[in-house]
Structures are given as C-alpha cells and as structure tokens.
Design a protein that fits this description.
- 35% of the residues are buried.
- The protein has a 7-stranded mixed β-sheet, covered by helices on one side. A 3-stranded antiparallel β-sheet has the order 8-9-10.
- Helix 4 runs antiparallel to helix 5, helix 6 packs parallel to helix 11 and helix 9 runs antiparallel to helix 11.
- The two termini are 24 Å apart.
- The chain is globular and about 55 Å long.
- With 296 residues, the protein is an alpha/beta fold.
- The protein has a domain of 194 residues: Protein tyrosine phosphatase superfamily (Protein-Tyrosine Phosphatase, Chain A, Alpha-Beta Complex), CATH 3.90.190.
- InterPro entries: Prot-tyrosine_phosphatase-like, Tyr/Ser_Pase_IphP-type.
- Keywords: Membrane, Transmembrane, Transmembrane helix.
C-alpha cells in the first residue's frame, strides 16, 4: 500500500505488524488507508520529548490514545512496564505507545563502555552545555547537541546499533511485549525515519519468527529506497544539526549483516514451547535475560 505522507512504510508480518517513519504527518487520506488495515496499536520508539518537538498536524491523536511507557529494570527478572495515558482520544481501543530507546539507561551504558577520558570529556561537555542553555535560555539546544554526540558514536552506525541492542534492552522488551500481544494486533512500529530504531525491533521480530538472515537484511535495505523522500531532512537533522557522518543516513546490507553477526556472537537464543498458540523465546546474555512471546 502506498502512502503519500508515510514514507518507508512496509509489511513486517502480513496482517499483524507493519513498520514506517513517523506518523505525525499523516494526511486525512492516509488516515483512511491506515484504518483499512485495521491497525489498533502504534508503538513509537521516540521519547515524549521528541514528540513534543514536532510541529506536525498529528491527526492520529484524535483517534489513538497517547500512552507513555516507563520501563524499570529488575535484572535478572524481566523489566517492569508502566503505562500512563497522556491524552485521551475518540477510540479507547486504539493506542499510540511511546517507548523511548534513548533513555537514561542507554546514555549511561554508552558512557560506561568508553575510556575514562572520553567519559570525563562527555560529562564536562554536557555540564557546559547545560550552563549555556540556562544563561542563553535556549530550551536545551546545546544540551541536546551534546547528548546526541554521545548517542551518535564516532565509531559509526554499526556501533550505534550495538549500543541499542546492549543498552536499550528494557525498551526493546517493552516494545516487543506490546507488539506481540494479540489484543494489540494489527500493529505499526515506527520512529522518526523508520530506519534505525524501527529496524532493530523488526530484525528481532523476524529473527525470532525464524526468518532467514537474508530476509532480515533485505528488509533493512529497503529503507534505502523508502527514505529517499526524507533524505534532505535526515541530512539536516543528523549531519548539519549534530555533525554526524553521512553514513548514518544509509541502510546498507553489510551493516545489518555485521549487526546480526554481533547478536549471534554475544547473545544466545533459546526457544521453548510456552503454550499451544505461542512460542516463548529467551534472549540471554551475561547480564540480561528477557522473555518474548511471539504469537504464531
């Protein structure tokens, strides 16, 4: 299905799960197209702060309840998920969840894995940025730039993906828990461009469902074509505004190939029959154990 205002849209699991860029700009015509797919749930991998920065029409807010998702880590047990309805809507059975991938846990993890001198430099930079924002009253302009400099590591897009799977584990657990609940399907997963955070979740879903690595790689690579209409905006947002490499805008096959190799090397996946209609999957590493239910 083609959307005029929803770039990078495609099917992940037919009739159950779709993926796209942000839904903030959806037009009236595309609202009707989404309705024809019967989508009950949107899992948005942005933070509420990212949402509030958007000046788009956000027509879906009139239909979908806005729900903030907070994840509390309880290792080695599964994380605790808390839901807070931010805005009511006309349909109580349709919900737009916000599960922030770039949270405190993520920032702490990316800092801790770096050498001590880089940690000190990053912390001092963030303190200076905070002081500048306070003095100049810039609505955290410099602090945001300093924070993004930590997120968009100088080691490139592959390390960024590794950081997400290592340090956004609680958010991934929450996203997968929502998406794989039959009551929430059909569902749509998205982020700002639908290329990176969305790609991580889609790759995990496809992998757990037994799709081949080549299927996962091909799905990821489709974002090269899917984000063409967004490329200039992406360049301004990521490269001009934050000084990141242009390679962060790409969705090359070799990136996903190496990312999947990293997951294979670091993580062990066990599949157990949980109940007749679903499969229970345990993704286990040295320091985290998570349980995902995937409906067949």
């Amino acid at each position: 299905m083609d959307f005029e205002s929803l770039p990078n849209f495609r099917t992940v699991v037919p009739g159950k799960l779709y993926r796209s860029s942000t839904v903030d700009n959806v037009t009236t015509n595309d609202v009707e197209k989404l309705s024809s797919l019967g989508i009950k749930t949107i899992v948005d991998l942005r933070s509420m702060e990212e949402l509030n920065e958007s000046s788009a029409p956000r027509l879906l807010d009139d239909i979908f309840q806005t729900v903030g998702v907070e994840v509390k880590d309880r290792k080695p047990q599964a994380p605790e998920i808390q839901f807070t309805v931010k805005d009511a809507a006309s349909r109580q059975d349709k919900r737009h969840f916000f599960v922030a991938f770039y949270n405190r846990q993520f920032l702490t993890g990316t800092l801790q894995r770096r050498p001590w001198y880089q940690r000190v430099f990053a912390i001092l930079t963030m303190i200076l940025a905070f002081l500048l924002d306070t003095i100049l009253r810039t609505n955290r302009k410099y602090l945001k730039k300093a924070t993004v400099a930590i997120i968009l590591t100088d080691k490139g897009i592959l390390q960024w993906y590794k950081d997400m799977v290592d340090y956004s584990t609680g958010s991934m657990f929450a996203a997968l828990s929502i998406l794989t609940d039959p009551q929430n399907q059909p569902a749509l997963v998205c982020c700002k461009h639908g290329k990176d955070r969305t790609a991580i979740v889609a790759a995990l879903v496809l992998g757990i469902l037994g799709r081949t690595k080549q299927d996962v790689i091909e799905d990821y690579h489709k974002s090269e074509e899917g984000t063409k209409s967004l490329y200039q905006m992406m360049y301004n947002d990521v490269c001009v505004r934050f000084g990141a490499q242009e390679s962060y805008l790409w969705a090359r096959k070799e990136t996903m190939q190496r990312f999947l190799e990293y997951i294979d090397e670091k993580y062990v996946i066990h599949r157990l029959i949980f109940k007749p209609e679903s499969t229970c999957t345990i993704l286990q590493c040295k320091s985290h154990i998570f349980v995902f239910s995937i409906v067949r």
